[in-house]
Design brief:
single chain; mainly alpha; Hydantoin permease; two-stranded antiparallel ribbon; 77% helix; 1% strand; globular; binds phenylalanine
């Protein structure tokens, strides 16, 4: 079978597009706010460097050597117990699960792009009412925008790897960077900027507990798109002889720098206009619109630009969340790309409708189990259970299961002296860290 290949820059942009998502712009700033800034950022950066980077290389390696969908790649690369190891490939399913709420959140962002053109709430209280009214009562609006997100994502995916995914990323990623760079340039001129820098880079260890630690590690995984086959699937289309280490470096670098820049922008704005950084998940949808209002007319422009950037980040991640299972059905069952994308799209669209309903008054009562509704359960199950399991399996697979000679043949020339430290980290540091994270996120520890 002939497989379309990414160009070198196309692969880096598509992988960076996968990594840079709602996690960077929406989630990273608010969890940094919740855990008090500097110390949390430091732990996150160390995790990205020590664990994230080495798993990124491992995941790219499996894709690069396997050359097929995630299930087949594991199966072919396992020297024995192929039938067991192929189940590790089903980590691709996590992406479809994540899409159930990811697409709904992208829908909210679309809605905010449109409304910010004409309206911004004048106080945080008003902003909160706007957001919760949408969340709890506006079913049709959410359904409309969720459907729009479904249409865009399936359209791009059906155009294929080069004509869809690569093209989209080569356009949206630079656009996203330009928007963020111009907002950052403006933030630099404000007094609030130095406060934001202080908040993000001077560690206050008193806020750090085991939960903060685990959140930082879990987030490093989520934000780098590790543990669910997205990067692996993209890497299956790398050209022979491509430099995995360099690509992994660029993806990690871009993802980290964009999270930091987004954090600095948001905190500068919040400090400048008298809000505090600890605002929780509503930071972007509640505190920020009220801050944009304070800015006057430039605020309307920034609000629209900001939500456009957020939508771009979300869409480029979405295609990577769905592609692994699309590839799976094409490779294993001979489905056409169109059939595979529409089927996967309908899956997350349908369950997405349930996710919307699970926040709507009158319906949410039927879609809540224990302390969480359907939406929150999916978020929790993917981040706390599925991604760490995926990461754990990959580290063990490359570290212990694949023949060392095979791994070494590709990686030693690229990593040189760093080969042994990388291999050690995969075998011992990463699996232990992932195991601890998983247990504590599941509430066992
Ligand atoms: N990395 C994306 C983000 O930060 C989310 C994602 C996770 C995308 C896993 C693909 C795979 O929002």
């Amino acid at each position: 079978m002939k497989i379309a290949r990414f160009s070198r820059i196309g692969f880096i942009m598509a992988s960076a597009g996968s990594a840079v998502g709602l996690g960077n712009i929406w989630k990273f700033p608010y969890i940094t706010g919740e855990y008090g800034g500097g110390a949390f950022v430091l732990i996150y950066l160390l995790t990205v460097l020590l664990i994230g980077f080495s798993i990124m290389i491992a995941e790219m390696l499996i894709g690069y050597l396997g050359r097929r969908d995630t299930v087949t790649s594991f199966e072919e690369l396992a020297p024995k117990h192929k039938n067991l190891w192929k189940f590790a490939g089903f980590q691709g399913l996590s992406g479809l699960f994540i899409m159930i709420f990811y697409s709904v959140v992208i829908g909210w962002i679309f809605n905010y792009i449109v409304t910010s053109l004409v309206y911004l709430p004048s106080t945080v209280k008003e902003a909160e009412v706007t957001f919760t009214t949408m969340l709890h009562t506006e079913f049709w609006t959410q359904l409309f925008y969720h459907t729009l997100s479904f249409i865009i994502i399936t359209y791009v995916l059906h155009k294929g790897l080069k004509g869809g995914i690569e093209k989209m990323n080569l356009f949206l990623m630079p656009a996203l960077m330009i928007i963020l760079a111009s907002m950052f340039a403006y933030a630099l001129t404000l007094d609030g900027f130095s406060k934001a820098v202080h908040f993000m880079f001077s560690p206050d260890w008193s806020k750090i507990n085991s939960e903060a630690f685990v959140t930082a590690v879990g987030h490093a995984f989520f934000t780098l798109s590790l543990g669910m086959g997205a990067i692996m699937t993209y890497a299956a289309s790398l050209e022979k002889g491509a430099n995995i280490v360099k690509s992994a470096f660029w993806v990690v670098f871009l993802d980290t720098i964009i999270a930091i820049v987004a954090g600095l922008i948001l905190f500068t704005f919040l400090y400048q206009y008298g809000s505090s950084p600890a605002k929780g998940p509503g930071l972007v949808f509640i505190s920020l619109p009220a801050v944009f209002y304070e800015m006057g007319i430039i605020g309307n422009i920034f609000a629209v630009l900001f939500f456009v950037a957020l939508a771009f980040a979300g869409l480029t991640s979405s295609v990577s969340l769905v592609e692994p299972m699309v590839q799976y059905f094409i490779d294993r069952f001979g489905w056409s790309r169109l059939r595979a994308t529409i089927s996967m799209g309908l899956f997350f669209w349908l369950f997405g409708v349930l996710a919307i309903l699970s926040n709507i008054d009158g319906a949410k009562e039927y879609l809540t189990w224990g302390s969480r509704n359907f939406f929150d359960w999916i978020d929790y199950l993917t981040a706390a259970v599925m991604l760490p399991i995926g990461g754990f399996l990959m580290a063990v697979f490359v570290g212990f299961v694949m023949e060392k000679s095979k791994v070494e043949a590709v990686m030693r020339p690229q990593l040189k002296w760093a080969f042994e430290p990388w291999y050690f980290s995969l075998r011992y540091i990463t699996p232990v860290a992932m195991f601890i994270v998983m247990l504590s996120l599941m509430g066992v520890l």
